[in-house]
Amino acid sequence: MPKVTDAYRAEKKRLILACTGEILKEKPLYRVTMRDIIRRAGFSQGVIYRYYASLDAIYIDYMNVHTTGFPLEERIDALLCTYLAEREVLTECFSLLGEYIEGLMQSIVGEMFFELIVLYTYDAEKRTAVFPKLQFKQSLAYAQRKMMEYTLKAVEKGVFRPQIPVRSILLFARSFIDG
After folding, report:
1. CA–CA separation, 162 vs 169, rounded Å?
2. Which of 29, 27, 20 is nearest to 66 (CA)?
3. Is residue 169 a contact partner of residue 151, using CB atoms and an 8 Å limit?
4. What is the pLDDT of residues 137-158, one digit of tens each?
């Protein structure tokens, strides 16, 4: 039996994701089934499971492939290392986050994420298993963590003198970023 190459596997996965995209243009995510993708790809049921264990795995891969090429982590890091005033740095970081989130919301990733939120509303186990694997969620978590660390250091140095508890500010920022 001939050895299957990485390029061959990658091409099969690309085909599966392309078929998934076509189906998502025709019907909402909650109505897509593994059988739909199998039929569209022209695979047998056994073949598709060699590449993806579940529909969720396909969604994760599809969303990660289609997540914007916006280099959020690098841009946040660059801002946090500038010599701008702390207030300006944080203002720019929040603007950058807004730009990133807006780009996501205008893409298929934002649409799919919204549909997944609805689909997993009452399935915390799936939500907990799927959402952390999404690249854009990882990028947002990174940016959030870096901005929080920066803010706390600025408070400790006395640059910022919050009028409300720091914990409340951090919770507000987290809800802004997480939605």
Report:
1. 8
2. 20
3. yes
4. 899 999 999 998 998 899 999 9
* Residue 88 and residue 75 in contact, taking contact as beta carbons nearer than 8 Å: no
d(CA 39, CA 19): 9
Most distant CA pair in the chain, distance = 70
Q: Which residue has the higher pLDDT, 172 or 158?
A: 158
* pLDDT higher than 80, residue 81: yes
From 136, 149, 172, 174, select the one nearest 77 (Cα to Cα).
149
Side-chain half-sphere CA neighbours of 80 within 13 A: 20
pLDDT band at 114; cut points 50, 70, 90: confident
And the tokens for 105? 């919301």
Match 């963590």 to its residue by tokens: 145
Alpha carbons 137 and 116: distance in angstroms, whole number: 13
Q: Return contacts of 149-152, CB within 8 angstroms, 24+ apart.
A: 150/80, 150/86, 150/89, 150/90, 150/93, 151/90
What is the C-alpha separation between 155 and 40, in angstroms, rounded? 56
pTM: 0.83
* Residue of 122, 112, 84 whose CA lies nearest to 17: 112
